[in-house]
Amino acid sequence: MRTSNPTLNDTVFENARATAERGTAVMTLNGTVTRTLILVLLLVGAASWSWEFVIGAAAAPAWFGPALKFGWILPCLLALVISFVPKTAPWLAPVYALVKGVVLGIISAYFEKAFNGIVLSAALLTCGVLVALLAVYVTGLIKPSENFKLGVAAATIGVFLFYLASWGLSFFGIQIPGIFGNGLIGIAFSGFVVVLAALNLVLDFDFIENGCESGAPKYMEWYAAFGLLVTLVWLYIELLRLLAKLRGRD
């Protein structure tokens, strides 16, 4: 397994190479970067649209409440389809970016209303972490070993299951104490998840590099860009949570 990101792993590339026709165009680093930028622009554009509904209106539309509660389900379904059928990435990855962007804009706007300036801080930190880890990876200071990859994978799956369980328990009015508060336990947990999301970026870089070197088919550029977008969005949301907890203690 090259990465703990469920959308990016060696099996996907192996299957793609096995089904690719001879003479077809192959994945390149420049192509992956270009498609990543396209998805980011779509995400930001959709987020800006829903952001204005919350920030610019006296009262948010009624559908925003259910969107916050269940808005992750449609992007998750799209992600599952893309993960199992990578050839759909050129068409479904942009749809994912738009849908996820709408939900992300709503989340960001509510955080901004509660803590002025927090969204810009989280966005800048996300970009800073991305650039820093990319520089560390390119210079060879970090080369993830197999044990490192397995450890990050296990921790990532554990966090996902924890969030899923917390969401399910919320329907019964059950809240897990401490973890989501602004106490020391809550801040430590958010700090851990931020570090975990950042480590996923390193593994994603490793995955993309291997994909380009192994001659994966061209459509895998969209697939790799989609996987990187998933990690970036996760990192941004976790940074929002961490900053909110820190500012909530003031």
Give an account of the 3D structure.
The protein is mainly alpha-helical. It has one domain (10-248). Helix content is 75%, strand content 0%. It is built from nine helices and no strands. Helix 2 (29-55) packs across helix 5 (89-114), helix 4 (73-84) packs antiparallel against helix 5 and helix 6 (118-138) crosses helix 8. The longest helix has 30 residues, at 184-213. It is globular and about 50 Å long. The protein starts with 9 loop residues before the first helix and ends with a helix.
Form type? globular
> Mean pLDDT, as a whole number?
86
Strand content: under 5%
Taking pLDDT < 50 over at least 5 consecutive residues as the criterion, the unreliable ranges are none
Number of domains: 1
Q: Return Rg in Å.
A: 18 Å
How is the secondary structure organized here?
Layout (H helix, E strand, L loop, with lengths): L9 H10 L9 H27 L8 H7 L2 H12 L4 H26 L3 H21 L7 H25 L13 H30 L6 H29 L2
Concise summary:
The protein has 250 residues and is mainly α.
Tag the structure with descriptive keywords:
9 helices, 250 residues, mainly alpha
